[in-house]
Design a protein that fits this description.
Elements (H helix, E strand, L loop, with lengths): L5 E4 L1 H9 L4 E6 L2 H11 L8 E2 L2 H8 L6 E4 L12 E4 L5 H14 L4 E3 L8 H6 L9 E3 L7 E10 L10 E4 L8 H5 L1 E6 L11 H14 L4
Parallel strand pairs: 2-3, 5-6, 5-9, 6-7, 8-9, 8-10
Antiparallel strand pairs: 1-4, 2-4
Helix pairs in contact: 4-7
Protein backbone atom coordinates (compact mmCIF):
# COMPACT_ATOMS: atom_id res chain seq x y z
CA UNK A 1 0.00 0.00 0.00
CA UNK A 2 1.34 3.43 -0.97
CA UNK A 3 1.40 5.84 1.98
CA UNK A 4 -0.63 9.00 1.73
CA UNK A 5 1.56 12.01 0.94
CA UNK A 6 2.28 14.58 3.60
CA UNK A 7 0.54 17.82 2.59
CA UNK A 8 2.66 20.90 3.28
CA UNK A 9 0.36 23.91 3.10
CA UNK A 10 2.01 27.28 2.67
CA UNK A 11 5.52 28.62 2.26
CA UNK A 12 6.53 28.18 5.89
CA UNK A 13 5.56 24.51 5.99
CA UNK A 14 7.40 23.83 2.74
CA UNK A 15 10.55 25.71 3.76
CA UNK A 16 10.87 23.95 7.12
CA UNK A 17 10.28 20.53 5.60
CA UNK A 18 12.97 21.15 2.97
CA UNK A 19 15.43 22.48 5.53
CA UNK A 20 15.09 19.29 7.55
CA UNK A 21 15.41 16.88 4.67
CA UNK A 22 11.90 16.24 3.37
CA UNK A 23 11.65 14.54 -0.02
CA UNK A 24 9.21 16.57 -2.07
CA UNK A 25 7.45 14.76 -4.88
CA UNK A 26 5.56 17.81 -6.07
CA UNK A 27 5.34 21.54 -5.34
CA UNK A 28 2.45 23.49 -6.87
CA UNK A 29 1.05 27.00 -6.91
CA UNK A 30 -1.57 28.94 -8.80
CA UNK A 31 0.99 31.74 -9.16
CA UNK A 32 4.52 30.28 -9.01
CA UNK A 33 6.26 33.62 -9.55
CA UNK A 34 4.48 35.20 -6.60
CA UNK A 35 5.05 32.14 -4.42
CA UNK A 36 8.75 32.11 -5.23
CA UNK A 37 9.04 35.79 -4.36
CA UNK A 38 7.59 35.06 -0.93
CA UNK A 39 9.88 32.06 -0.53
CA UNK A 40 12.93 34.14 -1.46
CA UNK A 41 11.97 36.74 1.14
CA UNK A 42 11.46 34.33 4.04
CA UNK A 43 13.82 31.49 3.10
CA UNK A 44 16.54 32.52 0.62
CA UNK A 45 18.35 29.27 1.44
CA UNK A 46 15.54 27.17 -0.10
CA UNK A 47 15.20 26.74 -3.86
CA UNK A 48 12.34 24.87 -5.50
CA UNK A 49 10.83 24.01 -8.85
CA UNK A 50 7.16 24.98 -8.68
CA UNK A 51 4.48 23.62 -10.99
CA UNK A 52 1.64 25.93 -11.99
CA UNK A 53 -1.84 24.51 -11.44
CA UNK A 54 -5.34 26.00 -11.28
CA UNK A 55 -6.26 27.63 -7.98
CA UNK A 56 -8.95 24.96 -7.54
CA UNK A 57 -6.22 22.31 -7.43
CA UNK A 58 -4.34 24.24 -4.76
CA UNK A 59 -7.49 24.54 -2.66
CA UNK A 60 -8.26 20.84 -3.11
CA UNK A 61 -4.80 19.78 -1.98
CA UNK A 62 -4.41 22.25 0.88
CA UNK A 63 -8.00 22.47 2.05
CA UNK A 64 -7.97 26.21 1.45
CA UNK A 65 -6.25 28.99 -0.48
CA UNK A 66 -2.48 29.14 0.07
CA UNK A 67 0.37 30.45 -2.04
CA UNK A 68 2.25 27.15 -2.22
CA UNK A 69 1.60 23.44 -1.58
CA UNK A 70 4.16 20.68 -1.30
CA UNK A 71 3.54 16.94 -1.35
CA UNK A 72 6.19 14.98 0.51
CA UNK A 73 6.88 11.54 1.88
CA UNK A 74 6.89 10.68 5.55
CA UNK A 75 10.48 10.28 6.69
CA UNK A 76 11.68 6.80 7.55
CA UNK A 77 13.43 8.31 10.55
CA UNK A 78 14.17 11.71 12.04
CA UNK A 79 17.13 12.30 14.37
CA UNK A 80 16.05 12.84 17.96
CA UNK A 81 16.88 16.11 19.67
CA UNK A 82 18.92 16.30 22.85
CA UNK A 83 15.98 17.29 25.04
CA UNK A 84 13.27 15.35 26.85
CA UNK A 85 10.62 13.57 24.82
CA UNK A 86 7.06 14.91 24.96
CA UNK A 87 4.14 12.52 25.42
CA UNK A 88 0.66 13.87 24.66
CA UNK A 89 -1.97 11.75 26.37
CA UNK A 90 -4.89 11.38 23.93
CA UNK A 91 -4.73 14.87 22.38
CA UNK A 92 -7.86 15.99 20.52
CA UNK A 93 -7.24 19.46 19.10
CA UNK A 94 -5.34 19.25 15.81
CA UNK A 95 -4.07 22.82 15.88
CA UNK A 96 -2.86 22.45 19.45
CA UNK A 97 -1.04 19.25 18.55
CA UNK A 98 0.68 21.01 15.66
CA UNK A 99 1.73 23.86 17.93
CA UNK A 100 3.30 21.30 20.30
CA UNK A 101 5.34 19.85 17.43
CA UNK A 102 6.50 23.36 16.53
CA UNK A 103 7.59 24.10 20.11
CA UNK A 104 9.26 20.71 20.48
CA UNK A 105 11.24 21.24 17.29
CA UNK A 106 12.32 24.69 18.43
CA UNK A 107 13.58 23.47 21.79
CA UNK A 108 15.24 20.33 20.44
CA UNK A 109 12.94 17.80 22.13
CA UNK A 110 13.77 14.14 21.79
CA UNK A 111 10.42 13.30 20.20
CA UNK A 112 6.71 14.03 20.22
CA UNK A 113 4.69 10.93 21.09
CA UNK A 114 0.92 10.68 21.14
CA UNK A 115 -1.66 8.22 22.38
CA UNK A 116 -5.26 7.97 21.22
CA UNK A 117 -6.87 8.03 17.80
CA UNK A 118 -5.66 11.33 16.37
CA UNK A 119 -3.03 10.98 13.63
CA UNK A 120 -0.18 13.36 14.55
CA UNK A 121 0.59 13.57 10.79
CA UNK A 122 -2.89 14.82 9.90
CA UNK A 123 -2.64 17.68 7.35
CA UNK A 124 -4.10 20.17 9.86
CA UNK A 125 -1.46 19.16 12.40
CA UNK A 126 1.33 19.46 9.85
CA UNK A 127 0.10 22.90 8.84
CA UNK A 128 -0.10 24.11 12.45
CA UNK A 129 3.41 22.77 13.00
CA UNK A 130 4.68 24.76 9.99
CA UNK A 131 6.19 21.62 8.48
CA UNK A 132 8.44 20.92 11.46
CA UNK A 133 7.48 17.25 11.65
CA UNK A 134 10.74 16.73 9.75
CA UNK A 135 12.75 18.37 12.55
CA UNK A 136 11.67 16.14 15.45
CA UNK A 137 10.46 12.51 15.56
CA UNK A 138 6.64 12.52 15.66
CA UNK A 139 4.69 9.30 16.07
CA UNK A 140 1.65 7.72 17.67
CA UNK A 141 2.36 4.95 20.17
CA UNK A 142 0.29 2.08 21.50
CA UNK A 143 2.60 1.05 24.36
CA UNK A 144 3.36 3.57 27.06
CA UNK A 145 6.92 4.28 28.22
CA UNK A 146 7.93 2.53 31.42
CA UNK A 147 8.36 5.83 33.26
CA UNK A 148 7.22 9.40 32.68
CA UNK A 149 7.27 12.77 34.41
CA UNK A 150 3.60 13.70 34.56
CA UNK A 151 2.45 17.31 34.46
CA UNK A 152 -0.41 17.80 36.90
CA UNK A 153 -1.65 20.67 39.12
CA UNK A 154 -1.09 18.49 42.19
CA UNK A 155 2.60 18.01 41.44
CA UNK A 156 5.79 19.68 42.65
CA UNK A 157 6.39 23.25 41.52
CA UNK A 158 8.29 23.19 38.20
CA UNK A 159 10.53 26.01 39.42
CA UNK A 160 12.06 23.63 41.97
CA UNK A 161 12.44 20.70 39.58
CA UNK A 162 15.31 19.92 37.24
CA UNK A 163 14.07 17.92 34.26
CA UNK A 164 16.57 15.35 32.97
CA UNK A 165 17.30 15.19 29.26
CA UNK A 166 16.27 11.53 29.08
CA UNK A 167 12.84 12.13 30.65
CA UNK A 168 9.50 11.60 28.95
CA UNK A 169 7.30 14.58 29.84
CA UNK A 170 3.62 13.59 29.82
CA UNK A 171 0.79 16.07 29.30
CA UNK A 172 -2.96 15.50 29.36
CA UNK A 173 -5.59 17.68 27.73
CA UNK A 174 -6.84 20.86 29.39
CA UNK A 175 -10.22 19.29 30.05
CA UNK A 176 -9.32 15.74 31.10
CA UNK A 177 -5.72 15.87 32.33
CA UNK A 178 -3.62 12.72 32.49
CA UNK A 179 -5.30 9.37 32.07
CA UNK A 180 -5.07 6.79 34.84
CA UNK A 181 -2.83 4.65 32.64
CA UNK A 182 -0.27 7.42 32.09
CA UNK A 183 -0.50 8.62 35.69
CA UNK A 184 0.36 5.09 36.84
CA UNK A 185 3.65 5.34 34.91
CA UNK A 186 4.60 8.67 36.50
CA UNK A 187 7.68 8.58 38.70
CA UNK A 188 7.01 12.20 39.58
CA UNK A 189 4.25 14.76 39.12
CA UNK A 190 5.20 18.33 38.27
CA UNK A 191 3.00 21.43 38.31
CA UNK A 192 3.46 24.54 36.19
CA UNK A 193 2.85 27.63 38.34
CA UNK A 194 -0.28 29.52 37.40
CA UNK A 195 -2.13 32.54 38.73
CA UNK A 196 -5.14 32.05 41.00
CA UNK A 197 -8.48 31.84 39.19
CA UNK A 198 -6.80 30.90 35.88
CA UNK A 199 -7.93 27.35 35.25
CA UNK A 200 -5.26 26.03 32.89
CA UNK A 201 -2.73 26.73 30.18
CA UNK A 202 -3.13 25.82 26.56
CA UNK A 203 -1.50 22.42 25.91
CA UNK A 204 1.15 23.84 23.59
CA UNK A 205 1.91 26.60 26.11
CA UNK A 206 2.40 24.02 28.85
CA UNK A 207 4.82 22.03 26.69
CA UNK A 208 6.75 25.18 25.77
CA UNK A 209 7.03 26.23 29.43
CA UNK A 210 8.30 22.79 30.42
CA UNK A 211 10.89 22.65 27.63
CA UNK A 212 12.01 26.20 28.35
CA UNK A 213 12.50 25.20 31.99
CA UNK A 214 14.75 22.39 30.80
CA UNK A 215 16.85 24.74 28.65
CA UNK A 216 16.96 27.46 31.34
CA UNK A 217 18.38 24.91 33.79
CA UNK A 218 21.26 24.31 31.40
CA UNK A 219 19.80 21.47 29.38
CA UNK A 220 19.70 23.19 26.02
Amino acid sequence: MVAEPVVLSGVHAVKHAVRFGARLDRVVSADPAAALRVLAAVAPDVTLDVEQVPVEEVVRLAGGPVELVGLARRPESVPAGEGPAVLLDNPRHLGNLGAVVRAAAGFGAGAVLTTGTVDPWHPTVVRAAAGLHYAVPVRRITELPAAVVGFDPAGDDLRAVRLPADAVLAFGSERHGLSDAVRARATRLVAIPIRDRVSSYNLATSVAIALYSWTAAGGG
